[in-house]
Known about the structure:
Elements: H1 3-19, E1 45-49, E2 59-64, E3 69-71, H2 74-79, E4 87-93, E5 96-101, E6 106-111, E7 117-121, E8 127-133, E9 136-141, E10 146-151, E11 156-162, E12 170-173, E13 176-181, E14 186-191, E15 196-202, E16 207-212, E17 218-222, E18 232-236, E19 241-246, E20 255-260, E21 265-270, E22 272-277, E23 296-301, E24 308-312, E25 319-325, E26 331-339, E27 341-346
Antiparallel strand pairs: 1-2, 1-27, 2-3, 4-5, 5-6, 6-7, 8-9, 9-10, 10-11, 12-13, 13-14, 14-15, 16-17, 17-18, 18-19, 20-21, 21-22, 23-24, 24-25, 25-26
Amino acid sequence: xxRILMNRFIYSILVALILFSCKKEEIGPQCPSCxxxxxxxxxxxxxxxxxxxxxxxxSITKYEPVSKVVSQQxxxxxxxxxxxxxxxxxxxxxxxxxxxxxxxxxxEVIDTASYTxxxxxxxxxxxxxxxxxxxRGYISDLYSNGISIVDLGANQVVDxxxxxxxxxHLLIDNNMLYIACPDTNWVLKYDLTTEGYVDTMxxxxxxxxxxxxNNGNLWMLCSGGYQEEIPTLHEYDGTTISxxxxxxxxxxxxxxxxxxxxxxxxxxxNDGLFTLELTSSSLPSIPVINSTNATFYGLGIDPNxxxxxxxxxxxYVQSGRVLRFDSLYHPxxxxxxxxxxxxxxxx
Length: 347
């Protein structure tokens, strides 16, 4: 099991012990903080908050970066019902935003102009991440041993790509679907045209997020599992692994690989925030932003001005927050969110 999921499991046990004597209305899907008037703007940033595992209190926080106005419980305020249990990730397709609700086994769909609910994909097991290609969606899963293929017009699962194990982060490039399998050291390459596997890339233990950079190459971050191997970062040129960079210690815990296409550099979290020039032959040892008094958990780069958004899960029990920095790493703002903020979507 990846160390992030292991940590989340441990925190879930702690949450259960801490909250046993608490009143349920303080932590459950009730919505005392819902705002009566929430409206979408053209510059919104949405923060997906996982919520406490098993409590059904996933939520979305809306942030307007110019006015710095924050709205909590946006989905429930607008639609009148709660999202479900554990908001894992976002996926954008045309004018719809897909909200992957991991522990509820579903994907809720909202209109990006108004955030009103327009549909749902149900019958999933433990969905994790979603990508789209043409009129099809592809959803990874923790337990189902396959990738669900979705007809995006009907919001129906129409087929499955067999994987045989846990699938996590996905990326589509040149009709190829790349599938990270975090309980192995594999990234699978699946041809969407011929509908068959064409390669298995053997890299570091527990591959996670995959990003494409300006020169067309892919970069893949491996966490090393739960302190099983030293984490690694790999560059793939379409044919072979052309570069492998190793972290300094088996206790390193890198995550959230993100690409800044304007400055042509990578970012990732490893306690603090680190940045990497693509031509570098080694990984940096000093963060550009320290995580002092914070639990860095999610990461996003605003495509409009390159501002950096880092989510802070705090103690994984109480409400979290987001730290906003400019492209030179100067603090811009800090705002509160729901519980365990992670996914970030820039409108």
